[in-house]
Amino acid sequence: MQLMREIDDSAKPYIEYLAGTAVPKVSPQVRHAVVQASLAVILGNLAQKRGYVGTELRCYLPLEPRRSSLVPDVAFVAKERLSGLSDEERERPHFAPDVAVEVRSDDDKREYLEWKIAAYLRYGSILVLDVLPAERAIYAHTAQGVRDLHEGDRFSCADLPWLTFDVGEVFAVLDE
After folding, report:
1. Which pTM was predicted?
2. DSSP strand E in 40-89: where?
């Protein structure tokens, strides 16, 4: 539990730790918040009983020599990855979620985002979605590379065959 003593995860506004460097999460505005909620609903509906979908799920990554603690906007964790863990380990997972979603805000720094995507993939994520509400685009990162998708495209992932949706569905809330 050394990691928990190194990271203050109660700080407000939320702070992420990228290889020991404290980086405040950008305060979401309306566009960010509604796209985040839209993705949580879509992912939750598609995941069904395969695992858990949540927003702002902090994960602790054992990067050396400095620890990291990331808070994806939306996350999916498969049930089998949590089985056998203690209650405390389930509440504070020391791995990246199977699916991590980062919804970009205007103030996000590109270098932090790139670092986070690489860390998610290195520590257990199958898929990282980099979502750009202003452009209505999604960049889907996997170990095999990155795909860019826009309204009119249909998202699918061979490693997660249950995860298929129309990209426009994510952004439809912006038209209401």
Report:
1. 0.88
2. 51-55, 59-61, 68-70, 74-78
